[in-house]
Each structure stands twice: as structure tokens, then as C-alpha cells.
């Protein structure tokens, strides 16, 4: 089985008010890319992936008159994808939903949110002391993680959590002091979300569930200068770094955590206009519980410059660059 996670930048801009796919000459949400160019590129990438299920991060915005599931299924039909059924969880107000597009002949998937001690449902509120002032702060997800119960055609039950944690970028800052204040506040909130997510993961592992945690954590070890104030990145918290019996496994995250002089793998590429250069970062992950990690699994980042097969196929290489500022991550695993 092939599973994928893919953050599609401004997927929402490729559909009209009725949820119909817009493959025309109008501009997409991506710089200097038309809607037709991005739609065609996404069709090429999804077709090449040929995944049994794709966690779509930044899926089209859900509204009653244009459901996210209908738009994704329409996209799948347009390109003849096997992964042609969609499921979502709690909608949000950011125009960036989290959804799973899957092949119903291979797996079934249903939204199955849970709650428990210290980890309320992801559409609820977590009370946690963020700044060590002996008072509980109220934390909410701007993009509630997607909790799914999966069953394979062979009858194996799996749990999947799809996440898109809040960005730490200091939006709205007007001075260096603002940058520092907002960045630190955002990191506190993101770490609280990571703790919340980890508590839910731990509950599944304690129950003996086979678990996949997939998505964009908007964080990684050493990604910003404020990490040292808090000791650990969101990635380390979600993985359960140091908790040997319940630690999740992702080889790209493990390599980044152990890297010193070697360059870590990357899944995203952003243009930094003031500096006139591109920033590459590891943001997208597929983490497995230890029972699944014991299987002969293979992870792959579909990076147009770092993956030899992607580089050797010019059409796919161009499509990966045009389609999004993130690149897909796949997992091939015998389940």
C-alpha cells in the first residue's frame, strides 16, 4: 500500500463558488502560475504518485454549497485517479482544510474523533499553562487535526491522524520587538498544540492501536532561533523523543534530529524575497507506531532536485515545482 501526505498551496483557489474545477488562464494563488498550469501540474503529480490514499493538507475550503469532499472527488475524476473518495473532519475558518483522498477498493475511512484525560476532542479547547504563571491558558486548533479509523481490504484496522500545526511566522509584526514577541507567543501555542497531539497519540499507543501520524508540522529541529528557549521542537514532542516504548518513527525526522554538519532532507521550498534566495525545510512527515515501523516500509520525498527519479523525468520535475511549495512524501508499506 502507498500512503502519501501532500500540502497543496492554494488548492482552494482552483475551484469556483460552486466547487467546479477552474482550469483557465486566470491567476492561481501561486506566484506567476495560472490556474490551468497548477491544475495540470497537480494532475501530473497525483497521477505519478498513484497512491492508495493521500492526506491533502490545505485542501479546498469547505462551505455547504461547495463541500471539500465533492471538490476533491471532482478533481480525482478529472484525472482518473484511483484515490477517488474523500473524507474530512472538523472544518475550519482558514480556507485550508485537512482531508484524505483514498481508493475505496483498497481501504475504508471514516471520521472518528476521540477525547480523553488531558486531550479533549480537537475541535474543543485545551487548558494548559503556556508561560509558567500558574494560570491555565486556553488553546485551540485553527486547523483541527483529522482523526480517522481506517480498515484495509485485508481487514487490518489502523488509526490515522492528519495534522497541520499553526505556523510560527510573526505575522503583523511592525518592529523587531514585535517580531520577537509574536514569534515566541506563536511558538508557545504551537508547542501546546504538539503536546495536545502527543497526548492523543499516546492514548492510541497505550490502547495498542496501529497508528499513522501524517501531515505538515510547520516545524523541525533547528528551524528557528527561538527553539532553544523551549528545549524541543514540535516534531520531537509529537514523535515522543526520549519515550523509547512509545516513540513514533520517521526516518527523515530521525536524520534531521541527528544531523550536525550534514544537510537534512527537505520537503518544502519557499522564496525569501528580501534575501533573493530559496529556503528549504523539512516540514512534512509520515510517522509510524512501532508495530508498523517494524514492517519493511519505504519512505520517499518527491523532491524535484534531490530525488533522482523525479529529476530524470522533466515533466514530473516541472509539475512538482509548479504545483505547490511543498513536495509529497510517500510511504510504501505491506499492510
Tell me about this structure.
This protein is α+β, with helices and mostly antiparallel strands and 335 residues long. The protein has one domain: 4-Layer Sandwich (Deoxyribonuclease I, Chain A), CATH 3.60.10. 28% of the residues lie in helices and 23% in strands. The protein has helices at residues 35-49, 68-78, 176-206, 227-230, 234-239, 251-258, 290-293, 308-312, 314-323; strands at 2-7, 53-59, 85-88, 97-102, 107-111, 126-128, 137-139, 146-152, 157-164, 211-216, 268-272, 277-281, 284-288, 298-301, 329-332. The strands form 4 sheets. A 6-stranded mixed beta sheet has the order 3-4-2-1-15-14, covered by helices on one side. Helix 1 crosses helix 9 (314-323). The longest helix has 31 residues, at 176-206. The model has no long low-confidence stretch (mean pLDDT 91).
